[in-house]
Amino acid sequence: MEKQIAAAIRDGRTALGIELGSTRIKAVLVDEEHNPIASGSHDWENQYVDGVWTYSIPDIWDGVRESYRNMAEEVKERYGETLTTIGAICFSAMMHGYMAFDKEGELLVPFRTWRNTMTEEASEKLTKLFSFQIPQRWSVAHLYQAILNQEEHVPQIDYLVTLEGYVHWKLTGERVLGIGDCAGMFPVNCAAKDFHKRMMEQFDELVAPRQFPWKLRDIMPRVLTAGERAGTLTEEGARLLDASGNLKSGIPLCPPEGDAGTGMTATNSVARRTGNVSAGTSVFAMVVLEKELSRVYPEIDIVTTPAGDAVAMVHCNNCTSDLNAWVSLFEEFAVTMGMKVDKNTLFSTLYQKALEGDKDGGGMLSYGYLSGEHITHFEEGRPLFVRTPESRFNLANFMRVHLYTALGALKMGMDILFEEGVRLNVLLGHGGLFKTKEVGQRIMAAAIGVPVSVMETAGEGGAWGAALLASYMLQKEEGESLDHYLAEKVFKDDGGTRLEPDPEDEAGFRAFMERYRSGLSIERSAVDNLK
After folding, report:
1. Domains of the chain
2. Residue 395: which of 345, 328, 327, 340 has the closest Cα?
3. Can you give the pLDDT of all 531 residues of the chain as single tens digits?
4. Which of these, 370, 310, 374, lies nearest to 141 by C-alpha position?
């Protein structure tokens, strides 16, 4: 088997996905059967600089090169091959945000990530103008807020794009972006598979008095759908990606996509009545719609699959970050006591302990708001833990309530969709919350009230999803849709492990949510009074 894989590597019968996530950059190389054959990663963290959540340009490239280098080293160690060519490459990253460049290709202001909640005024005005929900993290909201703030860099903008679109541009010279992430920059027309023409004209009319030297369409990437060719790796791009100089230029790249799109791909949830939920630093659920929603909801974003079909997105800024911080505190305690504890074992043990807790979390309350949360209308966050003298304060309940609260805002958004009549056959789960067998899956099923499936490949995440999009571009038959390709050629024999909601867990989560909603005034007071 390894000889066959080695031959495929030599011949370039492979596909590579690289995803820049919130806390980790991961590279996954797959064979012709879509099996991961090598991977590499690099840990990183956003920085809060002058009131902005950001990553620096050097950090971006250091991380991309490190994850690629680690993957290439695994190829060498396992198969004895030096990686010189690849069948196709796809880049993915955190959706949304704001990267504005001048004519020389220089970044005009520090990268503003999806995590920033500084664009409320722009978001509200654009939503009213378009009669279409424009979330704070969308690129056009950041652009318009910069205009409202009269920021000096705005007239100099020559190109506005998201993180993976930037990386793709530097490696290929192509100013393109997959439609799924384009839909997180500006509204798209699903029928035309392009940015919404009327809304673009409305935006240009809105800012016309400012007399900028650009029209919005001129500074935005070209919209591409899954399966289209999106350029080739240049000589300069090959050196940027592979510092060793072994990788050759000329490798085709498919449209770069956002992490929501690669998450849908990695969980085979691009068809109607399917949905997926990615739960890590942030948490978001993607539900492929059968029809339009009846009205605009501030809590619900409308984006698309990588093929351009309409999707309702419930996005929450906060999920496991505060939970991870508590686990780190327990790790510090263990080290202080002279114990050696493997971090993965610690996570697994504490997560499993949560299942021993009371169904309602013991009457305790927590908010893991490290940053603002638009669904509950917070521009800033303050992590907090609250209990009454009567609360059943023990480790199992402590862990359970922190798992519950990681999904509190998501629950509120999903309830809106269900009240709209949206139906889900199953929710596919992926991301760090699901790494410990059954625990995250069981909590998610209780929260949302639908069956949750987790596939064996869920741990590979969006980087694997990106590799699948690259494979689809290479291997699809003429006219073959992305959902058919995934269902018949990737996931035909992998339905995942399905878990039905437990009625007692559901009742316990509902009881917790009553406290969660009632306690939001406590979080508000923390934000107002803890500066």
Report:
1. 1-95+229-267+459-500 (3.30.420.40), 321-369+380-401+504-529 (no CATH)
2. 327
3. 788 999 999 999 999 999 999 899 999 999 999 999 999 999 999 999 999 999 999 999 999 999 999 999 999 999 999 999 999 999 999 999 999 999 999 999 999 998 888 999 999 999 999 999 999 999 999 999 999 999 999 999 999 999 999 999 999 999 999 999 999 999 999 999 999 999 999 999 999 999 999 999 999 999 999 999 999 999 999 999 999 999 999 999 999 999 989 988 988 888 888 898 988 888 989 999 988 899 999 889 899 999 999 999 998 999 999 999 999 999 999 999 999 999 999 999 999 999 999 999 999 999 999 999 989 999 899 999 999 999 999 999 999 999 999 999 999 999 999 999 998 888 988 878 898 889 999 999 999 999 999 877 655 678 999 999 999 999 999 999 999 999 999 988 776 789 999 999 999 999 999 999 999 999 999 999 998
4. 374
Query: pTM higher than 0.90, yes or no?
Result: no
List the helix and strand counts (H, then E) for the chain.
Answer: 19, 22
Q: How many CB atoms lie within 10 A of CB 333?
A: 11
Tokens at 110, concatenated: 């520090």
Q: How far is CA 119 from CA 14, 126, 147, in A?
A: 41, 11, 11
Element (H, E) at 426: strand 426-430
Query: How many angstroms separate the CA atoms of 512 and 365, rounded?
Result: 8
321-336 helix and 343-354 helix, angle to the nearest 10 degrees:
120
- The single residue listed with the structure tokens 């741990």 is 459
Question: Whole-angstrom Cα distance, residue 261 to residue 270?
Answer: 9
